[in-house]
């Protein structure tokens, strides 16, 4: 299954979020028929997106499908494009960040660009529209590290609007989390061999924010 997850929904149960998650909904919808490769707390989950990130993710109903999708993830062949609004005006029209990501040595709850116990990560970005103090960008992932886009864009001085963890202290609270949407997802079906691609329209919160900054209205709250 390909799911278009709303902003504010946690993907799988964890301490503090035992229910109301995407996994809870999937278990009900599928009658419990999901891949078990991810363990009892993450049935069917091939890859995650953050609670406050909206958009597409793929879910495996059986272990063979999960294995095939995981192999594609491993060789970076799955097509994933996110759209985001970031602080500042990027100097170039396109570029990339290639920097390892691991646990922040100063705060274990955060990720960071670091050399210690880190994994290779690559994020390509392209400017879609400029607004002076903000830029609307498309980010294509080659890898899928935790908080990758959020960490990489912050590392080059352009954190995501609304990000309470990697953004400035005076976070834009009206966004209720980072302005980030998983818009495009493409992969080869592990069983049929058919290439499938999906596109999720920008959700209302994202569209409304773009309209707001186009008009140059106050966006610091």
Which features would summarize this protein structure in a list?
alpha+beta, Pseudouridine synthase
Mean of the pLDDT scores? 91
Strand count, sense and barrel status of the largest sheet are: 8 strands, mixed
Q: Tell me the overall shape.
A: globular
Proper CATH architecture: 2-Layer Sandwich
Structural class: alpha+beta
SSE topology sketch:
Elements: E1 2-5, H1 22-29, E2 54-58, H2 63-74, E3 79-87, E4 94-98, E5 101-104, E6 107-113, E7 122-130, E8 134-141, H3 148-155, E9 180-188, E10 195-199, H4 204-214
Parallel strand pairs: 2-9
Antiparallel strand pairs: 1-2, 3-8, 3-9, 4-7, 5-6, 7-8, 9-10
Structural write-up:
By secondary structure, this protein is α+β, with helices and mostly antiparallel strands. It has one domain (2-214): Pseudouridine synthase. The protein is 18% helix and 29% strand. The chain has four helices and ten strands; from the N terminus they run βαβαββββββαββα. The chain has helices at 22-29, 63-74, 148-155, 204-214; strands at 2-5, 54-58, 79-87, 94-98, 101-104, 107-113, 122-130, 134-141, 180-188, 195-199. Strands 1, 2, 3, 4, 7, 8, 9 and 10 form an eight-stranded mixed sheet that branches. Strands 5-6 form a two-stranded antiparallel ribbon. The longest helix has 12 residues, at 63-74. The radius of gyration is 17 Å and the shape is globular. The N and C termini lie far apart (37 Å).
